[in-house]
Amino acid sequence: MRIVKLSQESRQNLLENLLKRSPGNYGQYQDTVQEIVDRVKTEGDKALFELTAKFDWDGISKENVKVTEEEVREAYDTIDPALTETIRKSLKNIRDYHEKQKQYSWFDTTPEGTMLGQKVTPLASAGVYVPGGKAVYPSSVLMNIVPAKIAGVDHVVMCTPCNKEGKVNPAVLVAAKEAGADEVYKVGGAQAIAAMAFGTESIPKVDKITGPGNIFVALAKKAVSGFVSIDSIAGPSEILVLADETANPRYVAADLLSQAEHDEMASAILVTTSMELAEKVSAEVDGFVAVLSRKEIIQKSLDNYGYILVADSLDDAIETVNMIASEHLEIVTKNPFEAMMKVRNAGAIFLGEYSSEPLGDYFAGPNHILPTNGTARFFSPVSVDDFVKKSSIIYYSREALEKVHKDIEYFAKAEQLTAHANSIAVRFEQKED
């Protein structure tokens, strides 16, 4: 991996390079995606099936687009029972974590005759997208569906690509069944996002769409945002490791590559205060890449977006961490908890040398659908909050309103909104007379 001495210039160059990975910078695909979205919106199943036949399975039809119970049973029979058991263990941890995120309605009353509050209501329906292609993601099934179900969503629809024979990966189907998906459809890509956003004859319209995907999926989510809610527009995977001289270079190298293997645009960055560690990590990376199964993808990722940055101080390193705002941040320093308190921007934070990033991907419990491309500055991981909405509750008795009505009328008139003032004043006009 390339080793770069951290400076203001090198940091700026790095940020500019990383931003090239943002879905907002792929305008050449925008028109293609918009055309797909518009076709599905206007033509429904006809467009959906034609596009699925073109990209995935040419046998798709209204009769077989939905996964059947028989196909689910076949999936259970196909996969190793040990994998089913692992999925269930992971599912329990994810449920336990997300249960703690639940919010409840609240109401406050006063002796003066007022009541203010907030009503928390789950969304009626949600659509979750689970990608296929270069890897299989039953873990993303759990991360999408569990918070929706805990929030109380009535109907959860899942879309995921099938293979050329019309089969969905059996591990993905088992995970969907275990997590509680109500329906699973064999469609992927931008056309699946459009189908869930607008509805077709076969696939119901939903209120919100969550889940990761490739650039076409990301741009499709951007195109339908506003017609439905979305979680965020996700970019390629990324990891940033903050380490000092106490870190184990072999562990750090292995963790960097855990994200580089996702795709050629994934980002893997080490920020360290130790040049000795930087050189050892670089050597360990070379050794791992030579033997790992996805070495071609890993090498392209490292060539394009892999960096080892050497900082003069831990404060400089943490400043860089906050500027990059990485999807995954590992802190492997002498006192990781102290360093964590200075971190403002990260999707998920892993502390210490035994909290490797894949722990969060698969098993610990927190959601692995995270903000990318610096959006951790203002976005959060997918959570139960994504699947509820909140309504303000306001009640005033006549006596309570009477005490403040002149203030409200005065405020409204100051904004030259006399009808606003009048809607309050009419309630007390007899008394004024």
User: How many domains, as an integer?
Assistant: 3
Number of helical segments?
18
Query: Which second-level CATH architecture of the largest domain applies?
Result: 3-Layer(aba) Sandwich
Query: Could you estimate the helical fraction of the residues in percent?
Result: 40-55%
Structural class given helices, strands, pairing? Answer: alpha/beta
- According to CATH, what is the topology of the largest domain? Rossmann fold
Distance between the termini: 83 Å
- In the CATH scheme, the class of the largest domain would be Alpha Beta
pLDDT under 50 segments (min length 5)?
none
CATH level-four homologous superfamily name of the largest domain? Nitrogenase molybdenum iron protein domain
- Integer average pLDDT: 94
Find the count of extended strands (DSSP E, 2+ residues): 14
Radius of gyration: 26 Å
What is the 3D form? globular
Biggest sheet layout: 6 strands, parallel
Strand order of the largest sheet: 1-11-10-9-12-13
Work out the strand percent: 15-25%
Cofactor: Zn(2+)
Binding site for Zn(2+): 259, 262, 361, 420
Binding site for NAD(+): 129, 191, 214
Enzyme class: oxidoreductase
Write the layout of secondary structure elements.
Layout lengths: L2 E3 L2 H12 L7 H17 L1 H11 L13 H10 L2 H19 L6 E4 L4 E9 L2 E5 L8 H14 L3 E5 L10 H10 L3 E3 L3 H10 L9 E3 L4 H10 L4 E2 L7 E6 L5 H12 L6 E6 L2 H17 L3 H11 E5 L3 H11 L3 E5 L3 H5 L7 E4 L5 H6 L25 E9 L1 H17 L3 H8 L3 H4 L1
Parallel strand pairs: 1-11, 4-5, 4-7, 5-6, 7-8, 9-10, 9-12, 10-11, 12-13
Antiparallel strand pairs: 2-3, 3-14
Helix pairs in contact: 2-3, 2-8, 2-9, 4-7, 5-6, 5-7, 6-7, 8-9, 10-11, 16-17
